[in-house]
Amino acid sequence: MSKGSKELTLEEYVKRRMYGKGLSRFKAALEVYKEWCDGKLRLTDPNPPRDYIEYLRRLDYSLWYWTTVSLVVLTVITIALSTYVEYLTYLRYVLGSLFVLYLPGASLIEALYPKEEDLSPLERLALSIGLSLAVVPLIGLILNYTP
Q1: Are β-strands 6-7 and 2-3 bridged in parallel, bridged antiparallel, or unpaired?
Q2: What does 31-53 look like in DSSP terms, one character per residue?
Q3: What is the pTM of this model?
Q4: Residue 82, SS3?
């Protein structure tokens, strides 16, 4: 975490807030959070991932990736098993809809805007659905005319 030229940990900064202003831990943390939201405070990870394997191991960076992979695997398993187990057909419809209407756009948005502060969650959701509706027909058209 950096404010000006001083490098402090988040815990040290909150403690200074608590003792400096006589606030409770919750109030001090809330003030620090508001400073961060307003852009007055910059938080940096002291140990960012150095390579791809470390990136995949740290869920604070790669949770979106593992969620996408899990959804793809679950969809494929559901498609394979729905012919044998009838009640999986409805789960297949739900997962297939997510697979077609959300995942292509979400992956594209994550690639185009990797920083969390670039877009709000609502903008990410809306753009993910919109881009999926635009990209999926184009992919279908390309696949239709390829051998």
Answers
A1: antiparallel
A2: HHHHHHHHTSSB---SS---SHH
A3: 0.66
A4: coil
* Per-residue pLDDT tens digits for 8-28: 888 888 998 888 888 889 999
| First-to-final CA distance of the chain | 54
Give the Cα separation of 21 and 7 in Å (integer). 20
How deeply is 29 buried, as exposed, middle or buried, from its count of CB atoms within 10 A (0-12, 13-18, 19+)? middle
The size of the chain, in residues, is 147
Of 139, 120, 141, 121, give the one whose Cα is nearest residue 131: 139
CA–CA separation, 127 and 146 (whole Å): 28
Count of C-beta atoms within a 10 Å radius of residue 145: 6
Q: What is the DSSP letter of 3?
A: E
Strands (E), 1-147: 2-3, 6-7
**81/89 Cα distance (integer angstroms):** 9
